[in-house]
Amino acid sequence: EGRRSDGHFHWMFNGTRWVWDPIAQGFKVDESCFISKVEVFFESVDDKTDVIWFEIREMVNGYPSDEGISRKEIRGADLKRFESTDGSVPYPVEFEIPVYVDASKSYAFVIGGHSPDTRIYISKLGNKLLNSDSILEQPPLNYTMFRSLNGETWNAEQFDTMKLNIYRCVF
Hints:
By secondary structure, the protein is mainly beta. Helices cover 2% and strands 47% of the residues. It has one helix at 76-79; strands spanning 11-13, 18-20, 23-27, 33-44, 51-60, 63-75, 90-93, 99-101, 107-112, 119-120, 122-124, 145-148, 154-157, 160-162, 164-168.
């Protein structure tokens, strides 16, 4: 996957409290299933102060909703060993119970954190792939990545894709 140096989170004061700016990757499944885990790839992690959270949310009118279906939080110090300079080390986000996703709906995998020094890998259409001279000519997922400035309003980043792997349960 490609790499951009701005795949990080920001803090902002919304007038009453400090909020962090999450990023999200939209996705849709071909058939209804349970998601067992999502792997995400970290370029850097602030292991001193950061707490990173992960959610799966339904999409509403093509944008991530405010409500998480499932959530997990982890301290940055526990993620430090999953940092990589080449995007090769996945962190497996495993929720308490598998998450049911309906094929008739769209979803978003959302990541937020407290520190702008925590960064994940994303690819950008038209840029070189990480560890390669090849150019990313087609998006790896046929869905949009989003950034938020306040955790509520989302901007579509149609040429960006979060580097992740989504796993479904096999019963």
